[in-house]
Specification:
Layout: H1 4-10, H2 19-32, H3 43-49, H4 51-57, H5 61-71, H6 86-95, E1 98-99, H7 102-108, E2 122-127, E3 165-166, H8 180-191, E4 196-201, H9 211-224, E5 228-231, H10 240-251, E6 255-259, E7 281-288, E8 291-292, E9 305-309, E10 313-317, E11 321-325, H11 328-345, H12 351-360
Parallel strand pairs: 1-9, 2-4, 2-5, 3-4, 5-6, 6-7, 7-9
Antiparallel strand pairs: 7-8, 10-11
Bound molecules: calcium ion (CA) (2 copies).
Length: 366
Amino acid sequence: MFDANFYRTTYPDLINHSDSQCWEHYSTYGWRERRRPHPSINVNSYLSRYTDLRAAFKGNHWLAYNHIFNFGIQEGRNYGGPNLNPFSYLYSSITGCGIVNPTEMLYRIGKAPGTLTGQGVTVGVIDTGLDLSHPDIPLLFFNTKELLNGKDDDNNGYVDDIYGVDIFSNDGIPEDLHGHGTLVTGVIKQVAPECLISPIKIAGESGASNDVYISNGIHYAINRGVKIINLSTSLLGPSNRVYQALQRAEQAGIVVLIGAGNTGESVPSFPARYADSIHNIIVVGSYGANGISNFSNKSGGVYPYVLAPGEYVISTTLGGGTGYCQGTSFACAHVTGLIAQLLQTIPNLSIAGIKDILMMSSGNFL
Ligand SMILES: [Ca+2]
Ligand SMILES: [Ca+2]
């Protein structure tokens, strides 16, 4: 559970925030400002076990937290929280309820929070497109083999696909008319501001897509050479086309983050459910201040499955603004940003390696 009191008292500028405002802050700005992402450390339990620290910190929660965070592992002390507890890891593997913990993940690759930006990592965002003139979304992937001349210069079947592609309308301009893709991209950019986005548009103003557009989007991303695919979309049922495209992405060594779905069912929707048999997929469900979100599809034993913030997330909206969003799409986008940080540090990390680091650093708090 999210401990609003902990968060509020840890950061003095938030002292007048209500519980819900604390959650809202954490689910958006906590990641952007790189504050301690989750109160995974149980300070009281820690202090009760280590009497030297109890004396040293004299009840100062914040100093104790910092010490535990910075030195606890080096000193061979156990956090006292569930984070580094191997039983917790096993439990989260079984139940599929591990909550992604960015700080813990970075610790495992020897990086401090706030030092990674996803620089140079290309992310294919298969969605409704992107507000291409939004001031808060710089750094798109740039296709140097294509000119704006009405011709398909690089011979990939798409005319003028310079900053991405519009598979829905079959042209080179993935302008977002719906808003979902712009929100998703904004979340990725908050976590990994210097990653390169390749917007791959598979839906128009209504936001509705189908398995032909989705599979073509996946093929485009593979051919584009992206490292990560963010696929915040659901199908009504299984699709051989999408399955085969995802298999091809697996062969190409591309990790695919897929939202678990927003129908509240006990298993992920398709295509997320394919994580069972295609091993480059990571399924992401949503949690909020009170635990796993009601709307979020649960793991149902599908692995790997992790949780990230998906309620009251603030992101970029059409027309250059910002607004709230909610859903497993945005939880998924958080994790995509984190994987971009990971691949910035270890560019040749295998999919198995990515999954190991992510899953082992995800604790169980529910
Ligand atoms: Ca082209
Ligand atoms: Ca051209």
